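Progress note, sequence design subtask.
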């Protein structure tokens, strides 16, 4: 599977309330100059390549100087078995929470 193929198979659940919550949470803590939409593909590829259901916003890149973990679940719709959809579950400051 090529990187391009993986890229085409990954997406957030863009039209849900939890995606809007993800945006709000991310902007509440992020001190990055880029908007989230510029980084979304990289975030998805990062999680998929590590087979992880979270990503970390490092304390060096957060407004409150704390690490923040953004947690997701992954679904694969039956009719699109090559598609992985990441559903936002919330944010924590500790990976074990």
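Output:
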């Amino acid at each position: 599977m090529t990187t391009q193929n993986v890229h085409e198979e990954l997406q957030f659940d863009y039209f849900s309330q939890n995606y809007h919550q993800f945006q709000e949470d991310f902007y509440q803590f992020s001190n990055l100059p880029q908007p989230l939409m510029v980084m979304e593909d990289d975030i998805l590829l990062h999680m998929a390549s590590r087979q992880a259901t979270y990503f970390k916003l490092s304390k060096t890149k957060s407004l409150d100087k704390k690490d923040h973990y953004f947690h997701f679940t992954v679904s694969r719709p039956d009719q699109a078995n090559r598609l992985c959809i990441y559903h936002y579950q919330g944010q924590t400051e500790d990976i074990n929470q």
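The mean pLDDT is 89. Work on this subtask will continue into the next period as scheduled.
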